[in-house]
Every structure is written in structure tokens, then in C-alpha cells.
């Protein structure tokens, strides 16, 4: 894990296992089945870091040997919020490790005239403002969708938000840090740049198409 952007709130999880799996999904010959499986595996491996600062409470329990005090997660269950559609590809992997997490959904489309993301669907669990909300999208490209999704969550009173992606472009990281300086960004890889079509370079292509087998 390191801090390539010289910014405490940008975490690149360049753990060997994560980097290896990211390389597999970057390959153009990796098919839908494998791609989908590995996206979930990477998302699952990232949970350890995403949840590092969750609060614990002490409870009293009986082990087979004696009574003791032990820690358990405190407070409301956290919420995983995929940005539709590609974000859905990361949800199952996260749920493998946190089966009680709640799921919100954020649907955004890009207005063809203004080029700005517009909300078309949003559904969240109750008490959203009391929960940690993890917004997920495999690709942080321009940052437009991530910024709009986090705007939308903040409008509902949420204070504790993290953004998690698989591949980030420096342009997207900068834009998101500028718009939401309080939101940590956790990514499996940080790439070189965006190309003139808005793809991350070298990237992995269109994550949504590769997860869902569409073109
Ligand atoms: N969205 C993708 O799916 N891929 C990119 O490279 C950029 C945005």
C-alpha cells in the first residue's frame, strides 16, 4: 500500500495479490466469467482496508473456558452503494466478507447537452446519515459520476463516506479530491492518464461491458 499522490486520503492497495488479479482483468483475452469473478475477488480483498477504522464496542461473552470481554462491530451496519451499472460488479465480493452490509443504489446518466451526470435512480436503507457509506465504481475516470454520487449521498446527511474503485486515473483522483476533500479514495491501481475518449490508459476497457458481457 502506498501513497503515490502524496495525499493521506488516497490509498493505492498495491498488495501483490491485488496487483496480480488486476493484471488478469486488464488482459483483453480475459472473458466475462473470469473478469466478473476476479472483480469480486479484488473488491473482497479491499474490504480489509476499507473497514480498518470501523468502531468496536466491548461486550461480555462466555467462551467455553471463562467469561471475558471482547470486541464487536458497533453502530449501524455500513452501506455499500454501487454506482449503476458497473459498480454492481463489486458488490458480491464485498458482501462475502460483510454479509450484513446494507446496499444502496445510485443510477446516473450523462446529460448529452451539459455532459453532467444526472440522477435517475437512488434507493438507500433507513438511517443513512448514521452509517458509513462506501460508494463503489470500478473505474474512477473523470470523476464526474463519483462526485455526483457523493453529492447525492451527502444531500441525505451522510458524513462518513469512502470511495472505492479498482482503477483510477490521476485526473479523476484530483477532481474527486477537489470536490470532496473529506472522502478517502481507495483504489487497487492508479493508472497513467485518460485518453481523448475518456478511457483510462492502460486501464481495462469498459468495466461495465466486461462485467456484463455487453458491447
Ligand atoms: N469507464 C470504464 O469503464 N472504463 C474506462 O476506462 C473509463 C471509464
Automatic annotation (TrEMBL):
It catalyses: UMP + diphosphate = 5-phospho-alpha-D-ribose 1-diphosphate + uracil. InterPro entries: PRTase-like, PRTase_dom, Upp_B, UPRT, UPRTase/APRTase. GO terms for molecular function: GTP binding; magnesium ion binding; uracil phosphoribosyltransferase activity. One of its GO terms (biological process) is uracil salvage. One of its GO terms (cellular component) is cytoplasm. Its cofactor is Mg(2+). Keywords: Allosteric enzyme, Glycosyltransferase, GTP-binding, Magnesium, Nucleotide-binding, Transferase. The keyword Transferase applies. 5-phospho-alpha-D-ribose 1-diphosphate binds at residues 85, 110, 137-145, 206. Binds 1 Mg(2+) ion per subunit. The magnesium is bound as Mg-PRPP. Allosterically activated by GTP. It is an enzyme of class 2 (transferase). Belongs to the UPRTase family. HAMAP family: Upp_B. Catalyzes the conversion of uracil and 5-phospho-alpha-D-ribose 1-diphosphate (PRPP) to UMP and diphosphate. PANTHER family: ADENINE PHOSPHORIBOSYLTRANSFERASE, URACIL PHOSPHORIBOSYLTRANSFERASE, CHLOROPLASTIC. This is Uracil phosphoribosyltransferase. It comes from Haloplasma contractile SSD-17B.
